[in-house]
Amino acid sequence: MHKYLIFWAVYVSLSLPAIAQQASRQKATKQGICGTVVEKKGNMMPSVGPASARTNGAAVIREVLIFPLLNSSQVDAGENGFITSVRGVKPLKTVKSDKNGRFCVRMPVGKYTLMVREPKGLYANLSDSQNNIFPVSVQKNRQSTITVEISHSAVF
């Protein structure tokens, strides 16, 4: 019995570092975009009262489309953040957020535009100072973490 305990103690002590190293390697090589999709509706104006009355939005299931980096000059924009046309540009990848709004997709190093598919069309409500639409950068061996806020039905 004593031999078996020694064997298992040695086995576990030798296995754990190898398992930890493998997990560390997997984490280091993960590269892409992960995020959460939330929807904000109704009155989002700051107000006096309990903080619980205000919300950061509800997690939603949506199709998330990843395009090459698009500038506002390359698309036809509608109202409230809707994109009526991407002029033939195809998404590089499409993923669906889960019931908690979470999604994750592996991507090569580069700059991308994220949009979500809404019943009224493609939606993106963020741009940078160069008018790039919802820009996300992916760096080597890094995950870009973002929150996509769908706010076309909210009042601010």
UniProtKB/TrEMBL annotation:
Keyword Signal: yes
Keywords associated with the record: Signal
Signal peptide start-end: 1-20
Superkingdom field: Bacteria
Protein name: Carboxypeptidase regulatory-like domain-containing protein
